Amino acid sequence: MSALVTEATILPNRPGLTGRLSDFLWKHPHVLLAVLLGPPVLWLGIIYLGSLFALLLQSFFSIDDFSGLINYEFTLATYRQLLSDANFDIIVRTVTMAAVVTLFSALIAFPIAYYAARYAKGKWKAVFYLGIMLPLWSSYLVKIYAWKLILAKEGILTWAFAKLHLLWLLDAWLSLPVIGGNSLSVSYTGTFLVFVYVWMPFMILPIQAALERVPGNLIEASSDLGGTPQQTFRHVLFPLALPGIVAGSIFTFSLTLGDYIIPQIIGSSRLFIGQAVYAQQGTAGNIPLAAAFTVVPIVIMGLYLWMAKRLGAFDAL
Amino acid sequence: MRSDRSTSAPLGLKIAAIGGLAFLHIPILLIFLYAFTTEEKSYQFPPPGLTLQWFAVTWNRPDVWAALTLSVKVATIATAIALVLGTLCAAAVSQTRFFGRETISLLVILPIALPGIITGIALRSAFSMADIPFSFWTIVLGHATFCIVVVYNNAVARFRRVSGSLIEASMDLGADGFQTFRHVILPNIGTALLAGGMLAFALSFDEVIVTTFTGGQQSTLPIWMLEELIRPRQRPVTNVVAMVVMLVTFLPILAAYYLTRDGDQIAGAGK
């Protein structure tokens, strides 16, 4: 009975080529899916993943020390070279920098995100949104250039310290081991400041998104039940904002791990992973070692993403 | 009453938030100031004097124009490719359920989640293995790959709000799939696509890391800028170019903001 009704209500096939094609796709959703997904998946699969696998494969080759040519035989020698003291130092240095940059980015980003999510209304909401978006999207190189102007010996920072009669403080900071240097623009402090400046905006938006989903009455309930602002923050707000912080840290961590331009322009001569990759594939011509170096951020980010997924950070993106 | 506190922010929070925004904006303001400085040899602050002469000098530099033209061309074509691929992918992920949907999202995000140097060096070694000479098109190929995600994100967010019943209604009223796309889906997602396209353009226009690996002799504006950063030749010209680049990237961002801010009021979205 019901089959009969269905039969009668089905319209005749549509005329024309587009009509028939449309009918065909409607009746065969799998074909429609293939048509939709095919081009982007092929593009990303072949061009991107293909290149990525080709690169990873090369890390299992080695380079002939005498001829400088690549020896296409499976070996782990390149990885042994990667873990030699000098190269391992580079990895530790980069991961430490990425962790510190992520921590400070979160500290600076949180108040901005919290204010924007909870207190900014109407016009201020727009001001905050654009105030975050414009620095986030404005040119990466111009931002680095701005810091070159700021950190230069004759630049605004030295001028400000001089006006405040605090030059001794700057000199004392620069005379510290490791983080100091001849001037801010050739020290780790300089590299760190630029990293935080350039990647911090990526931290604000996910935190803001997470905080916006916290209902206001939850905070009120906490204080009605006698929680001090500190306790409310510690036990209510922070746990709910954590997925947002983790989502933001994916960006700050990953972007710092792979950057080679910032430490090249502002920083000491000691290398970061990105610079090592660049030097190995360029001047040294050692593609296998460069490939092995790129495996480090991939593995670290893989672990990081896996943990982030378990913390539910992807819902906060 | 404790709950009254929520109406205005504590002073400490206000200071931290405003301070954070100031930290983000002061360096950008400095770029605008330095474009007018008369100082040629150093980055002296405060500038000894202000002048407009460097705008004229920059205007007459053929190398700046060549780099700018190349950047605009690359960004335009990469954006066009990303628009098509990103929209297709977003349509598939948001309108249908299939095995491996999560994986597709991950695949799209990967080129931007992994550090740029990895994308760059992977493409470079693949191109040299396949004997593809570095050219304008290799730059476009690289840019399009990481621009897809921006379009995809915007389109997916909008597709989520386009009510499925609108599409079914259109089909029930006799429109075929293409007519439905043209007259129902496209008007609904149009502004999101435009916004995604603008952001993709800004992303490509500014890209430097992947470009250093996939470009041959050509220099885009960011590559030109990078050379000036490493070996400054004429600082005042760099100052002016920096300011112009800043302005050029601001415009698409502002446009994208105005296109998507009213995004919640779409017909039928209340369903």
TrEMBL record, chain A:
Residue ranges of every copy of the ABC transmembrane type-1 domain listed in the record = 91-308
Q: Which PROSITE patterns match?
A: ABC_TM1
Kindly give the InterPro entries that the UniProt entry links to this protein: MetI-like, MetI-like_sf
Question: Looking at the record's lineage, which domain of life comes first?
Answer: Bacteria
| Gene3D superfamilies for the chain | MetI-like (1.10.3720.10)
Concerning its family, UniProt says:
Belongs to the binding-protein-dependent transport system permease family. CysTW subfamily.
Q: What is this protein called?
A: Spermidine/putrescine transport system permease protein
From TrEMBL, chain B:
Q: Which residues form a coiled coil?
A: none
The record ties this protein, via CDD domains, to: TM_PBP2 (cd06261)
Q: Where is the ABC transmembrane type-1 domain?
A: 68-256
Where in or outside the cell?
A: Cell inner membrane; Cell membrane
Spans through the membrane: 12-36, 64-92, 104-122, 134-152, 240-259
Report the principal subcellular site.
Answer: membrane
Question: Which keywords label this protein?
Answer: Cell inner membrane, Cell membrane, Membrane, Transmembrane, Transmembrane helix, Transport
Respond yes or no to whether keyword 4Fe-4S is given for this record.
no
Record-linked PROSITE patterns: ABC_TM1
How is this protein positioned relative to the membrane? Multi-pass membrane protein
List the Pfam families hit by this protein, alphabetically: BPD_transp_1 (PF00528)
The question of whether Mitochondrion is a record keyword is answered with no
Q: Which family does it belong to?
A: Belongs to the binding-protein-dependent transport system permease family.
The identity of this protein, by name, is Spermidine/putrescine transport system permease protein
Q: Which organism is it from?
A: Rhizobium herbae
